[in-house]
User: Which sequence fits this backbone?
Protein backbone atom coordinates (compact mmCIF):
# COMPACT_ATOMS: atom_id res chain seq x y z
CA UNK A 1 0.00 0.00 0.00
CA UNK A 2 1.52 3.25 -1.07
CA UNK A 3 1.40 6.32 1.07
CA UNK A 4 -0.47 9.01 -0.78
CA UNK A 5 0.62 11.71 1.62
CA UNK A 6 2.61 14.28 -0.23
CA UNK A 7 3.65 17.87 0.10
CA UNK A 8 2.60 20.18 -2.64
CA UNK A 9 5.44 21.96 -4.43
CA UNK A 10 4.09 25.38 -3.50
CA UNK A 11 3.80 24.28 0.14
CA UNK A 12 7.39 23.05 0.07
CA UNK A 13 8.59 26.36 -1.30
CA UNK A 14 6.57 28.24 1.29
CA UNK A 15 7.96 26.07 4.07
CA UNK A 16 11.52 26.40 2.82
CA UNK A 17 11.19 30.14 2.41
CA UNK A 18 9.92 30.54 5.97
CA UNK A 19 13.12 29.21 7.51
CA UNK A 20 15.05 32.11 9.04
CA UNK A 21 18.52 32.85 7.81
CA UNK A 22 21.35 31.86 10.20
CA UNK A 23 22.48 35.48 10.43
CA UNK A 24 19.05 36.48 11.72
CA UNK A 25 19.13 33.67 14.26
CA UNK A 26 22.49 34.93 15.50
CA UNK A 27 21.23 38.52 15.67
CA UNK A 28 18.02 37.52 17.43
CA UNK A 29 19.80 36.71 20.71
CA UNK A 30 21.29 40.18 21.39
CA UNK A 31 18.05 41.79 20.21
CA UNK A 32 16.07 39.64 22.62
CA UNK A 33 18.47 40.47 25.44
CA UNK A 34 18.16 44.19 24.72
CA UNK A 35 14.38 43.93 24.78
CA UNK A 36 14.38 41.98 28.05
CA UNK A 37 17.03 44.05 29.84
CA UNK A 38 16.11 47.52 28.55
CA UNK A 39 12.80 47.50 26.71
CA UNK A 40 10.73 45.80 29.41
CA UNK A 41 12.14 47.88 32.32
CA UNK A 42 11.56 51.09 30.35
CA UNK A 43 7.96 50.10 29.64
CA UNK A 44 7.43 49.45 33.34
CA UNK A 45 9.04 52.78 34.14
CA UNK A 46 6.72 54.49 31.67
CA UNK A 47 3.67 52.84 33.22
CA UNK A 48 4.74 53.77 36.76
CA UNK A 49 5.23 57.39 35.71
CA UNK A 50 1.46 57.71 35.21
CA UNK A 51 0.59 56.21 38.60
CA UNK A 52 -0.53 58.25 41.58
CA UNK A 53 1.64 58.58 44.65
CA UNK A 54 0.21 57.44 47.98
CA UNK A 55 1.47 58.59 51.36
CA UNK A 56 3.84 56.16 53.02
CA UNK A 57 5.94 55.27 50.01
CA UNK A 58 3.17 53.54 48.05
CA UNK A 59 1.59 54.22 44.68
CA UNK A 60 -1.77 53.40 43.16
CA UNK A 61 -2.46 52.33 39.56
CA UNK A 62 -4.11 54.97 37.44
CA UNK A 63 -3.44 57.49 34.73
CA UNK A 64 -2.38 60.99 35.63
CA UNK A 65 -0.12 63.60 34.07
CA UNK A 66 0.46 65.22 37.45
CA UNK A 67 4.01 63.87 37.73
CA UNK A 68 5.06 65.30 34.37
CA UNK A 69 3.26 68.58 35.07
CA UNK A 70 5.07 68.90 38.39
CA UNK A 71 8.43 68.35 36.71
CA UNK A 72 7.80 70.77 33.83
CA UNK A 73 6.45 73.54 36.07
CA UNK A 74 9.01 73.32 38.88
CA UNK A 75 11.86 75.82 38.81
CA UNK A 76 13.90 73.45 40.98
CA UNK A 77 13.77 70.50 38.61
CA UNK A 78 14.07 72.58 35.46
CA UNK A 79 17.10 74.28 37.00
CA UNK A 80 18.64 70.92 37.90
CA UNK A 81 17.95 69.74 34.34
CA UNK A 82 19.82 72.71 32.92
CA UNK A 83 22.67 72.19 35.37
CA UNK A 84 22.89 68.50 34.47
CA UNK A 85 23.06 69.43 30.79
CA UNK A 86 25.77 72.03 31.40
CA UNK A 87 27.92 69.66 33.47
CA UNK A 88 27.57 66.93 30.84
CA UNK A 89 28.55 69.29 28.02
CA UNK A 90 31.53 70.61 29.99
CA UNK A 91 32.67 67.06 30.77
CA UNK A 92 32.37 65.96 27.14
CA UNK A 93 34.28 69.00 25.84
CA UNK A 94 37.02 68.63 28.46
CA UNK A 95 37.41 64.93 27.63
CA UNK A 96 37.60 65.79 23.92
CA UNK A 97 40.29 68.44 24.43
CA UNK A 98 42.35 66.18 26.70
CA UNK A 99 41.63 62.92 24.92
CA UNK A 100 42.29 63.84 21.29
CA UNK A 101 46.05 64.51 21.67
CA UNK A 102 46.48 61.30 23.65
CA UNK A 103 44.47 59.25 21.17
CA UNK A 104 46.41 60.77 18.26
CA UNK A 105 49.72 59.96 19.94
CA UNK A 106 48.68 56.36 20.61
CA UNK A 107 47.41 55.88 17.06
CA UNK A 108 50.67 57.14 15.57
CA UNK A 109 52.97 55.05 17.77
CA UNK A 110 55.03 52.63 15.68
CA UNK A 111 56.05 50.24 18.45
CA UNK A 112 53.41 47.61 19.13
CA UNK A 113 54.56 46.93 22.70
CA UNK A 114 54.60 50.59 23.70
CA UNK A 115 51.18 51.14 22.21
CA UNK A 116 49.71 48.15 24.02
CA UNK A 117 51.33 49.24 27.27
CA UNK A 118 49.85 52.73 27.01
CA UNK A 119 46.43 51.38 26.00
CA UNK A 120 46.50 48.98 28.94
CA UNK A 121 47.27 51.90 31.23
CA UNK A 122 44.30 53.83 29.86
CA UNK A 123 41.93 50.87 30.11
CA UNK A 124 43.15 49.91 33.59
CA UNK A 125 41.37 52.93 35.06
CA UNK A 126 38.10 51.25 34.09
CA UNK A 127 38.81 48.26 36.31
CA UNK A 128 37.75 50.22 39.38
CA UNK A 129 34.12 51.08 40.03
CA UNK A 130 32.75 54.62 40.07
CA UNK A 131 32.36 54.39 43.84
CA UNK A 132 36.03 53.62 44.48
CA UNK A 133 37.22 56.33 42.11
CA UNK A 134 34.74 58.80 43.56
CA UNK A 135 35.95 58.17 47.10
CA UNK A 136 39.56 58.39 45.92
CA UNK A 137 38.98 61.87 44.51
CA UNK A 138 37.06 62.81 47.63
CA UNK A 139 40.21 62.07 49.64
CA UNK A 140 42.60 63.70 47.15
CA UNK A 141 40.54 66.89 47.01
CA UNK A 142 39.69 66.92 50.70
CA UNK A 143 41.05 69.32 53.29
CA UNK A 144 44.19 67.22 53.82
CA UNK A 145 44.34 65.72 50.35
CA UNK A 146 47.59 65.76 48.40
CA UNK A 147 46.04 67.68 45.50
CA UNK A 148 44.59 70.32 47.80
CA UNK A 149 47.92 70.75 49.60
CA UNK A 150 49.80 71.06 46.31
CA UNK A 151 47.41 73.72 45.03
CA UNK A 152 47.61 75.55 48.36
CA UNK A 153 51.42 75.50 48.19
CA UNK A 154 51.21 77.13 44.76
CA UNK A 155 48.84 79.75 46.10
CA UNK A 156 45.98 78.65 43.84
CA UNK A 157 43.56 77.81 46.67
CA UNK A 158 43.33 78.95 50.31
CA UNK A 159 45.30 76.78 52.72
CA UNK A 160 43.27 74.28 54.71
CA UNK A 161 40.18 74.60 52.52
CA UNK A 162 38.72 71.45 50.96
CA UNK A 163 37.73 71.39 47.31
CA UNK A 164 34.93 68.92 47.99
CA UNK A 165 32.06 69.25 47.76
CA UNK A 166 32.17 71.65 44.85
CA UNK A 167 31.68 72.08 41.13
CA UNK A 168 35.41 71.92 40.41
CA UNK A 169 35.79 68.62 42.23
CA UNK A 170 32.76 67.23 40.39
CA UNK A 171 34.15 68.17 36.97
CA UNK A 172 37.61 66.79 37.80
CA UNK A 173 36.14 63.49 38.93
CA UNK A 174 33.85 63.14 35.92
CA UNK A 175 36.58 63.98 33.41
CA UNK A 176 38.90 61.46 35.05
CA UNK A 177 36.26 58.72 34.98
CA UNK A 178 35.02 59.26 31.42
CA UNK A 179 38.27 60.24 29.68
CA UNK A 180 39.15 56.60 28.76
CA UNK A 181 35.89 56.25 26.83
CA UNK A 182 36.79 59.30 24.75
CA UNK A 183 40.35 58.13 24.16
CA UNK A 184 39.28 54.68 22.99
CA UNK A 185 36.60 56.08 20.67
CA UNK A 186 39.05 58.51 19.07
CA UNK A 187 41.90 56.01 18.94
CA UNK A 188 40.02 53.49 16.81
CA UNK A 189 39.01 56.19 14.33
CA UNK A 190 42.39 57.92 14.04
CA UNK A 191 44.19 54.60 13.73
CA UNK A 192 42.10 53.69 10.66
CA UNK A 193 42.86 56.94 8.81
CA UNK A 194 44.87 56.29 5.67
CA UNK A 195 48.24 57.87 6.46
CA UNK A 196 49.00 58.21 2.75
CA UNK A 197 46.49 61.08 2.66
CA UNK A 198 48.49 62.95 5.29
CA UNK A 199 51.70 62.16 3.43
CA UNK A 200 50.18 63.47 0.19
CA UNK A 201 49.23 66.67 1.97
CA UNK A 202 52.79 67.17 3.17
CA UNK A 203 54.18 66.37 -0.28
CA UNK A 204 51.97 69.08 -1.74
CA UNK A 205 53.52 71.62 0.61
CA UNK A 206 50.97 71.75 3.41
CA UNK A 207 52.35 72.23 6.91
CA UNK A 208 51.52 70.05 9.92
CA UNK A 209 48.76 72.37 11.11
CA UNK A 210 47.13 72.56 7.68
CA UNK A 211 47.37 68.80 7.25
CA UNK A 212 45.73 68.24 10.61
CA UNK A 213 42.94 70.76 10.05
CA UNK A 214 42.19 69.83 6.43
CA UNK A 215 42.81 66.08 6.44
CA UNK A 216 43.14 64.40 9.85
CA UNK A 217 40.46 66.29 11.75
CA UNK A 218 37.69 65.88 9.13
CA UNK A 219 38.44 62.17 8.78
CA UNK A 220 38.23 61.68 12.55
CA UNK A 221 34.84 63.37 12.77
CA UNK A 222 32.98 60.12 13.39
CA UNK A 223 35.21 59.29 16.33
CA UNK A 224 34.72 62.78 17.74
CA UNK A 225 30.95 62.46 17.41
CA UNK A 226 30.77 58.98 18.94
CA UNK A 227 33.18 59.76 21.78
CA UNK A 228 31.53 63.06 22.65
CA UNK A 229 28.06 61.54 22.54
CA UNK A 230 29.12 58.58 24.69
CA UNK A 231 30.72 60.77 27.36
CA UNK A 232 27.78 63.18 27.28
CA UNK A 233 25.26 60.37 27.82
CA UNK A 234 27.31 58.76 30.59
CA UNK A 235 27.62 62.13 32.30
CA UNK A 236 23.87 62.66 32.12
CA UNK A 237 23.16 59.38 33.88
CA UNK A 238 25.91 59.19 36.48
CA UNK A 239 24.73 59.11 40.09
CA UNK A 240 27.71 58.32 42.31
CA UNK A 241 30.07 61.15 41.36
CA UNK A 242 27.66 64.09 41.93
CA UNK A 243 26.60 62.45 45.17
CA UNK A 244 30.17 62.06 46.46
CA UNK A 245 31.97 65.08 44.98
CA UNK A 246 29.18 67.64 44.87
CA UNK A 247 26.95 69.28 47.43
CA UNK A 248 23.19 69.81 47.10
CA UNK A 249 23.80 72.71 44.72
CA UNK A 250 25.79 70.39 42.43
CA UNK A 251 23.36 67.47 42.46
CA UNK A 252 22.20 66.35 39.03
CA UNK A 253 18.95 64.73 37.91
CA UNK A 254 20.03 61.14 38.73
CA UNK A 255 20.65 62.20 42.35
CA UNK A 256 17.21 63.81 42.53
CA UNK A 257 15.67 60.65 41.05
CA UNK A 258 17.38 58.57 43.72
CA UNK A 259 16.13 60.90 46.44
CA UNK A 260 12.56 60.72 45.16
CA UNK A 261 12.57 56.93 45.14
CA UNK A 262 14.77 56.16 48.15
CA UNK A 263 14.09 59.08 50.49
CA UNK A 264 10.73 60.60 49.56
CA UNK A 265 9.22 57.28 48.49
CA UNK A 266 7.62 58.93 45.46
CA UNK A 267 8.18 56.25 42.83
CA UNK A 268 5.81 57.68 40.16
CA UNK A 269 7.50 61.09 40.20
CA UNK A 270 10.95 59.52 40.10
CA UNK A 271 9.81 57.37 37.18
CA UNK A 272 8.52 60.45 35.34
CA UNK A 273 11.88 62.22 35.71
CA UNK A 274 13.63 59.07 34.50
CA UNK A 275 11.41 58.86 31.42
CA UNK A 276 12.14 62.49 30.55
CA UNK A 277 15.87 61.83 30.91
CA UNK A 278 15.73 58.68 28.74
CA UNK A 279 13.72 60.44 26.03
CA UNK A 280 16.19 63.32 26.01
CA UNK A 281 19.10 60.89 25.65
CA UNK A 282 17.31 59.10 22.79
CA UNK A 283 16.78 62.40 20.98
CA UNK A 284 20.45 63.32 21.38
CA UNK A 285 21.64 59.94 20.08
CA UNK A 286 19.23 60.05 17.14
CA UNK A 287 20.24 63.58 16.24
CA UNK A 288 23.95 62.80 16.33
CA UNK A 289 23.40 59.65 14.24
CA UNK A 290 21.55 61.64 11.57
CA UNK A 291 24.20 64.36 11.50
CA UNK A 292 27.04 61.86 11.18
CA UNK A 293 25.22 59.89 8.49
CA UNK A 294 24.45 62.97 6.40
CA UNK A 295 27.95 64.43 6.69
CA UNK A 296 30.05 61.26 6.60
CA UNK A 297 33.31 62.33 4.91
CA UNK A 298 34.68 60.46 1.94
CA UNK A 299 38.45 59.92 2.25
CA UNK A 300 38.83 60.54 -1.47
CA UNK A 301 37.23 63.95 -1.04
CA UNK A 302 39.55 65.08 1.75
CA UNK A 303 40.73 68.49 0.76
CA UNK A 304 44.47 68.97 0.69
CA UNK A 305 45.52 72.54 0.64
CA UNK A 306 48.89 73.28 -0.84
Assistant:
Amino acid sequence: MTDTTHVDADDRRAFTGSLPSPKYLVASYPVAMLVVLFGVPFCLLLVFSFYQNVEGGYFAPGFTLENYARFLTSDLYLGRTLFTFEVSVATALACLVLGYPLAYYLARLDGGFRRQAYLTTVVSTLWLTFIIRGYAWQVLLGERGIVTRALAALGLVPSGEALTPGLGALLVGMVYVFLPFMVLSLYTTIKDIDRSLEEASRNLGAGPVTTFLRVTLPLSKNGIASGTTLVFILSLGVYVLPRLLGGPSQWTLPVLIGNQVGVEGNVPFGAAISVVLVVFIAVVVGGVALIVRDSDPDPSDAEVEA
Residues 48-190+230-276 form a domain with the MetI-like fold fold (CATH 1.10.3720.10). Residues 59 and 179 are 40 Å apart (CA to CA).
